[in-house]
Design brief:
Number of strands: 26
Length: about 1000
């Protein structure tokens, strides 16, 4: 059946259209987007909601925010509203609204200034926390609030929720570090919020503009309700943020408007820039993992641990640890988390961190904790064991695992998913254990599972119950559990929202503030925002608008309500599309992280795993509707949504990092292949795709005429024809020497399966089958022969299997019928080889890993055989003592640039290569890099030329130049091609370096 044309409702309301046209004609310098994909992306965050905005704008400079606010207050655009947005990691719809999203993350992301003498840093609102701390680290400082989404959380977003996180017991919250805030008020006026003494406050309150009105109202709300504020705000680390009446006026009469703005979730103004106080980095750290046989005992153990005065105590339950074992991070942390023989199973664990200015200081603190734990160990309900480390890399990895807890819970199997809606409750720490007992009883009474983790030292725990919001029976539980938890937190002197802000939970504000103080919040909102422009429906409604209500938790559209309408067969075909929980791990700031290169190069979130998964969800919905309504095969109106999805998919590099690094393993390359197959049932394929898909069959032919092929490719007319006719550029030269000739020269044994079966057990153990691939066999023959030479030098008999297409290009381009047939044929062929009892080893990771990934995904009831990646097999043989290196090898040093697919799918890769090189008396420096920008044929496609080069420049250019041809080793064929193209030299494969060492 041909794919139907899909036409979503793309229309905008009249006021938005007029506003956008006026904005376009104004001095606004940023981007204006009313396209459906961009709006769809901004309709979700890390919450259960989906609220479609009218448009998305990306300000380019501070003045753009003034223009937006000034226009928005114009009577001609009454009814317009704005939703400020940063990282989009809110767990309760904080940045979701039906108006115009104002996203400062794309362009306003610069660190403006650093004053080391005053220890102040000034940033634009879109600067990411990890970005700031990477900048500060070089200068010996850091910004302490530590959120788990630090790789994509923006500083304005953290200010908007008054974020805190790990270590807040000693470091406090974001608001504790604000020196100044430059904001834009309703009407477009700028104001710098800073602490004002009594005289300055009097002067400001005397002003006859919105600034004066705001300060008069805020001062009045605090002064007239001081006793009630003291009675109402909880006495604990986490407070009633949004709007923080408790701290805005101190005992000395100093007024600080920033305390009201922090935690206001963009409901009062826009943020132009922020100036923060920073502190010196502790020189040394230590971490102790403390094990318990029940989760409640872990919570109860916190009060004992606090006697050692740690910097932080974080708790995780057994579910988090279980899920972490299937994540890439486990290889770095597993030895610190498991129990020992004779201990009960680990059902709860506390991570306890100490900091100091010397290792002796940290060691003394750890010793103090161990003494406390040891003295209590004979008592019932105490820790069953613990481990300590002061290794910086290990500590970072353990905290990275803890950061991943939110995403890991999203990987729980089953229709019910762990979702955020009561995930950041906080109570006084001494009440935490009894509170959690009742919390768990409440969840158990509703028959739901859950995961728990969080900041045990300050009484803030993250709890994610599992619900299936596509199920009409589960949906009411969102309200029932929320109401129950709100009552429970109030009973224990705590809060429903401990650090993630309110979002749609603002409806509970009157419950915690009381009617009188809530009215004061509404008066403050009215003073700041008389037209309800800023994030309406959140925290408080303007006092002057009696008919306006907050958006209740069950009144905003739930993603589950949309997903329940999807055709079940379509959902089953694209399961990961609906499982994306919006965690945003694919928006990582770090250019040296391999996750989603297309997003890093474009800063366009539509071109990310989350963006593409969201488009696929909508595609499934529209296809379901089209199937039900017998939609015509011609455009009714507007652009076919199939084309929107295609445009997002064609920039995907198919690198598969999302398939392993995303917490819920959203595998975009697999879904992309499926989509392309469906898409091209309606739309013709580019000529380039046909040529790429046939690459594996054409390659042997081109090698027969290598001289002619290479000569043709070097001629300007042929280059122009390939660029403009097929959209292909900079194709690799075909090797004139062949694998067959090289093997013959070496006297390699014939590949004779009958003869191989007759080998003895001992002979088979000293033999190996080397599989060829399209890329190295035809374009990098020396690498294939180097693998042969190394194995032969180490005493193995090497049988090189005949070349066979593997199907990688077919899969990437969505020729799935051909791919499935080829994969099935290959399965039979390689099973036939496997029956010989000799290990099979592949060279190129992107190809070899297909046997474990794409083949498994596409084929059912596959035969049982294994194809090892070369380095993992060689490492295993080394560990087993099956080979040794001659003693004459001299010391040396190399730098490894590992292939993205390889190091994310096989996270032990760098470590294993390092240990192999150590055996050869070599030091191997592991370079942390993102994608080189080639990724198979991606970089050879003319449409991708700009992205490809940008990616190389981002994380490879400087490191490759520094290592140079003498030290640089690259495991990926495409990585070596890219370095040759843009670095002007071709790095060796690690095996080539090892062979050279053996030759002396």
């Amino acid at each position: 059946m041909m794919l139907p044309v899909l036409t979503p409702a793309r229309g905008l309301d009249d006021v938005t259209l007029r506003f956008l046209k006026a904005l376009e004609k104004s001095s606004f310098k940023g981007e204006i987007h009313a396209d459906y994909p961009t709006r769809l992306l901004s309709a979700t965050d890390n919450s259960v909601y989906q609220v479609m905005p009218q448009a998305v704008v990306y300000p380019a400079c501070e003045g753009d925010l003034n223009v937006i606010a000034e226009l928005g207050a114009d009577d001609d655009f009454r009814g317009i509203s704005f939703a400020p947005r940063g990282g989009g990691t809110g767990t309760n719809g904080q940045s979701l609204n039906k108006g115009v999203v104002v996203d400062t993350s794309k362009h306003m992301n610069n660190i403006i200034a650093f004053d080391e003498e005053k220890k102040l840093v000034t940033v634009q609102p879109g600067v990411v926390l990890d970005q700031l701390n990477a900048f500060l680290k070089e200068k010996g400082y850091f910004f302490p609030p530590a959120v788990s989404t630090s790789s994509r959380a923006t500083l304005a977003g953290m200010t908007g929720t008054d974020a805190s996180g790990k270590g807040s017991r000693i470091y406090g919250k974001t608001s504790d570090y604000i020196e100044e805030m430059d904001v834009v008020l309703s009407g477009g006026q700028s104001w710098t919020s800073r602490p004002l003494n009594a005289d300055e406050m009097t002067e400001v309150m005397a002003r006859h503009d919105i600034v004066g009105h705001i300060h008069r109202q805020a001062y009045e709300s605090i002064i007239e309700n001081e006793e009630l504020i003291e009675q109402t705000f909880p006495k604990m680390n986490r407070g009633l943020t949004g709007y923080n009446l408790q701290h805005a006026l101190d005992n000395n009469g100093t007024f600080n408007l920033s305390y009201l703005l922090a935690g206001s979730e963009g409901s009062l103004c826009f943020t132009q820039k922020l100036t923060f106080r920073v502190i010196a980095l502790p020189k040394n750290k230590g971490l102790v993992t403390v094990r318990y046989k029940t989760f409640n005992e872990a919570l109860e153990g916190v009060q004992l641990i606090l006697k050692a005065d740690p910097a932080a105590v974080e708790v995780v339950d057994d579910k988090i640890m279980m899920l972490a074992q299937d994540d890439i991070i486990w290889t770095q942390v597993g030895d610190m988390l498991g129990g020992v023989a004779g201990e009960p199973p680990v059902m709860g664990m506390n991570f306890v961190e100490f900091v100091g200015n010397s290792q002796d200081e940290v060691d003394a603190q750890i010793a103090k904790l161990e003494k406390i734990l040891d003295e209590a160990s004979e008592l019932e309900g105490q820790a069953t064991g613990w481990r300590a480390t002061s290794d910086g890399a290990q500590i970072s990895a353990l905290w990275e695992m803890r950061k991943k807890s939110v995403g890991l819970l999203g990987a729980l199997q089953g229709k019910r998913r762990a979702i955020p809606f009561v995930e950041d409750t906080a109570v006084p720490p001494e009440n935490l254990a009894p509170y959690i007992r009742e919390f768990r009883s409440l969840l158990d009474s509703h028959g739901v599972d859950y995961g728990m983790f969080g900041h045990a030292d300050v009484g803030c725990l993250h709890v994610r119950p599992t619900l299936d919001l596509t199920d009409l029976m589960d949906e009411p539980k969102l309200r029932e559990i929320s109401d129950g938890v709100a009552d429970l937190t109030k009973k224990y002197g705590g809060l429903l929202w401990g650090e993630h802000g309110k979002g749609f939970r603002g409806e509970y504000s009157p419950k915690f503030f009381g009617p009188k103080l809530y009215d004061e919040l509404r008066k403050i909102k009215a003073a700041f925002d008389p037209y309800n422009l800023f994030n309406p429906g959140k925290i408080a409604t303007p006092y002057t608008m009696a008919d306006v209500e907050l958006t209740a938790i069950d009144k905003a559209v739930l993603r589950g309500q949309i997903d329940r309408t999807l055709d079940e067969k379509l959902k089953e075909a694209y399961p990961k599309a609906t499982l994306c929980n919006g965690n945003g791990a694919c928006f990582t700031w770090d250019a040296f992280d391999p996750m989603c290169p297309s997003y890093k190069a474009t800063r366009d979130r539509v071109q990310s795993p989350k963006g593409r998964a969201g488009l696929l969800r909508e595609w499934l919905r529209l296809r379901t509707e089209a199937d039900k309504s017998d939609a015509p095969n011609a455009l009714a109106e507007g652009k076919d949504f199939n084309i929107d999805v295609y445009e997002a998919m064609k920039t995907c590099l198919s690198c598969k990092t999302c398939a392993t690094q995303c917490p819920v393993k959203v595998d975009i390359p697999e879904m992309k292949a499926q989509f392309l197959q469906a898409y091209h049932e309606r739309y013709s394929r580019p000529k380039r795709d046909w040529l790429v898909a046939r690459l594996e069959k054409l390659a042997p032919l081109t090698q027969k005429f290598a001289t002619l092929t290479n000569l043709g490719q070097s001629l300007p007319p042929v280059k122009a024809f390939m660029r403009h006719g097929f959209g292909l550029i900079d194709l690799p030269k075909v090797c004139r020497n062949t694998v067959q000739a090289g093997l013959k020269q070496r006297g390699a044994p014939a590949f004779d399966l009958d003869a191989m079966r007759t080998l003895s057990t001992e002979e088979k153990a000293r033999s190996v089958v080397l599989l060829q691939d399209t890329f190295t066999t035809h374009y990098d023959v020396d690498v294939v022969l180097a693998h042969y030479d190394l194995l032969a030098n180490l005493g193995y008999t090497v049988y090189v299997a005949p070349y066979r297409p593997n199907g990688k290009p077919l899969h990437v381009k969505g020729f799935l019928k051909e791919f499935d047939q080829l994969a099935a044929d290959n399965d039979m062929y390689y099973l036939h080889i496997a029956t010989c009892g000799i290990d099979m080893v592949g060279i190129e990771a992107a190809v070899t890993l297909m046997f474990r990934q794409e083949y498994n995904q596409r084929l059912a009831n596959r035969p049982d055989y294994t194809v090892f990646q070369f380095h993992e097999w060689l490492h295993a043989q080394m560990i087993a003592g099956h080979w040794q290196v001659p003693a004459h090898v001299q010391e040396g040093e190399f730098a490894l640039f590992a292939h993205c697919t390889e190091k994310t799918s096989l996270p032990e890769t760098p470590k294993q290569w390092s240990e192999i090189f150590k055996t050869f008396n070599q030091s191997l420096r592991i370079e942390k890099t993102g994608c080189c920008g080639m990724s198979g044929m991606f970089g050879h496609e003319a449409d991708n030329e700009e992205i490809s080069k940008k990616l190389y420049d981002m994380s490879w250019k400087e490191k490759a130049a520094k290592a140079g041809p003498g030290q640089m080793l690259a495991t990926g064929f495409s990585c070596r091609c890219q370095t040759k193209r843009y670095g002007d030299f071709k790095p060796k494969h690690p095996v080539e370096a090892l062979v050279q060492l053996l030759k002396g």
